[in-house]
Amino acid sequence: MIATPLPTEEKHHYLELGEVTLHWTEVGQGPPVLLLHGLNDSHRTWREIWPRLPGRRVLMLDLPGHGMSSRPDAPYTLDWNATQVARFIERLDLRNLDVVGHSYGGGVAQWLLLKCSHRIRRLALLSSGGLGREVYPWLRIASVPFLIEAFGQRWMGPIAGFAMAHATTSDAGAEIALLASYLRQPGSARAFSRTVRDVISWRGQTRNIFDRIREVDELPPMRLFWGARDAILPISHGIATAALLENCELIRFENCGHFVHWEEPEALASALRIFLDSPDALPAHVRSRRVSSEATATGHRSGRRASDRARR
Prior knowledge:
This protein is of the alpha/beta class. It is built from 12 helices and 13 strands.
């Protein structure tokens, strides 16, 4: 692929879908890649990544109830969110689409395989939700029915800013302030509360793509990217998933937490380019037997460091 320089600014777009109005920013030309953020985040989370993905049409979507997208009185279940994103993909007629999902956005990306797998070329999951039960304790508290929805709106900005500031070593004060302004918009607490309640309970995460993965006719090439110090979604989820799937490599970032794209953007972008540009990436496959303790150990060994991968 010939890398062409990216414009210096993103273009803002809106799409009215009836149930929700979606906002996204777009930059560049070439094969399309869709970047999906996590809970209480926005398209701005990719600010250090898109300039490092030349030669592509990069689309950074605000999920329903997030960023500059609308906040309707809607279910906000994982299936509903994935349906809205699938409608977005269909309306824009995106084909041979590469999808990158972080955290909850990774869960949405996985659910897209149930909605429009024929349009997805490759799937990159970054510290993804929906691959294990463990999750950060305060998210379990947030799943208490109606607690955040009824009383949390006034605290959405400060709480999110606090959480994001302590989730990364990057200096991103201005960005956290912008994110907090998004989260102060009416309806943010309702969207957050309903989104969390559908995927998390006091016991942990409740949705897992492996419960329905047999419904997908063919999986695309997949790769996992994870910070070894992730305290929100532990890297053990990535290790177990890599052991369950053939042709699904785990790339480890040893000094990163949950926000690899903030902490080591160049290393992540390099690893993403290697995956997206690889001419011989094979489709992922569920292994024929349940993963054993031996297979899990193999998964531990298969987690290649990002620096080692980049040198290949």
